[in-house]
Fold:
Amino acid sequence: MTFRACLTLGVAVAVMVPMSASATERGATPAPAGTGNLTVVTMEATVKAAQVDPRRADHTLTAGAKPSVLAVERALQAKGVLAARWVDGYFGTETVAAYVRYQASLGYTGLAANGLPGKDSLTTLGQGRFTVRRPIVPGARVHRDGVVINARTASMLTEAERRLGRTLVLAQGSYNPGGDPTSAGTHDGGGVVDISVQGMSARTRIAVARALRQVGFAAWVRSPSQGEWPWHIHAAAISDTDLSSQAQQQVGDYYLGRNGLANRGADDGPRVPIHTWEEYLRLR
Structure:
């Protein structure tokens, strides 16, 4: 809708970390009986649009997302949280704000009310209106390298390591609100990691960023000249539905050829076709 100006890995040891029901949307809500004639909403396309559309300077629609976004917007309108004039297939800031209101109406708080459609809230919204295909689930939280990430992020990192033929080390994980003021809130939610580049040559740093991008991260090599931080690689898992709002903005900017920083400069990372993790798995 309206444009919004806003703005490391060793051997993985997976340890389940308990979390409250409100921390993230988990599990599946069964589809209602007799859904054969209902519209189908593709969650992958909807979530992608919710990250990219708010960062656009115009109302260009995210390719392939319009039918799903329209179905979601019509349902939000029916719930009384979105005005009719914003039902247009463009998942901009007005639709994001409406989805936040809808998530809050379900009792969700924190990351579960971040404006990105989660599997549970989307399925509930669609009851009697649409069914949901190609769902995205962040998965359980796990410990790795002394930090917390989720299962989807862990799988993506493992695949990037396989492609590289080397082990990565996490310098910062996810679900770390306020843990690093220089991160501007990007690590508050899920899907975001910083990778140590200790001992890496410049060429290796670029190769790591490329591999991370290939498996579905928006990833950049960060230098001290860009901010008050040491050399590292910053990576945000595209379409992780636990992304903080700041990380969502980084992902949207990545799709639009930008660097994910506050200055919204040109992307300075290796060029690869942009894929989500789920798209990457289907292409393998």
Helices lie at 43-52, 66-78, 93-105, 119-125, 151-164, 202-214, 245-255, 277-283. The radius of gyration is 18 Å. The CA atoms of residues 7 and 188 lie 16 Å apart.
